[in-house]
Amino acid sequence: MAFATADLYDELGDGIQSLPLQLRSFGRRRAFDGPIRTVRCLEDNALVKSLLATPGEGAVLVIDGGGSLNTALMGDLIAASAVQNGWAGVVINGGIRDSVAIDGLDLGVKALGTNPRKSAKLGAGEVDVTVSFGGVEFAVGAHLYSDEDGILVERLS
């Protein structure tokens, strides 16, 4: 991966979106990129678990959890499944748990924070829909770049 988000932004300017949310970094991959897949769910991670158990082919899963930190949307077992299935990273507008274990995995993870509380497992939510948070639109198939300086998302026309 030969990119730096600061350099990409300098090159593309308003042609790329910059996420202003200050997400925490987890996982061994501090820089990652790939095409976007999405899940919209609130305090229910059943769809997250099922999607990350499918071939990721270098994609980044963006999860809009409504900014809730009441429960974790991903733990170490789901994150390990993402690694085994070839996902590049996961960006969560919500929380994770098992952060120490996730830090040992070859996966890029950005999340609002942590909470040890499990989420519901009812399957409520939507997969592969455009989600928005922090003033950025995450469209399925758009490219996401993430490193220590932040997250950039290409604009689809």
Task: Find the structural class using helix and strand composition.
Answer: alpha/beta
Encode the helix/strand succession as letters: HEEEHEEHEHEEEEEE
Distance between the termini: 25 Å
Count the strands?
A: 12
Uncertain residue ranges: none
Q: Figure out the total of helices.
A: 4
Shape from CA axes? globular
Labels describing this entry:
single chain; 157 residues; alpha/beta; ten-stranded mixed β-sheet; two-stranded antiparallel sheet; 12 strands; 18% helix; globular
Q: Secondary structure elements and their pairing?
A:
Layout (H helix, E strand, L loop, with lengths): L4 H8 L3 E4 L4 E3 L5 E9 L5 H7 L7 E5 L7 E3 L1 H9 L4 E8 L2 H5 L4 E7 L11 E2 L3 E3 L2 E3 L4 E5 L2 E5 L3
Explain what this protein looks like in three dimensions.
β9 and β10 form a beta hairpin. It contains four helices and twelve strands, in the order αβββαββαβαββββββ. It has 157 residues and is of the alpha/beta class. The chain is globular and about 40 Å long. The two termini are 25 Å apart. The chain has helices at residues 5-12, 46-52, 76-84, 99-103, and strands spanning 16-19, 24-26, 32-40, 60-64, 72-74, 89-96, 108-114, 126-127, 131-133, 136-138, 143-147, 150-154. Strands 1, 2, 3, 4, 5, 6, 7, 8, 11 and 12 form a ten-stranded mixed β-sheet that branches. Strands 9-10 form a two-stranded antiparallel sheet. The longest helix has 9 residues, at 76-84. Helix content is 18%, strand content 36%. The model has no long low-confidence stretch (mean pLDDT 97).
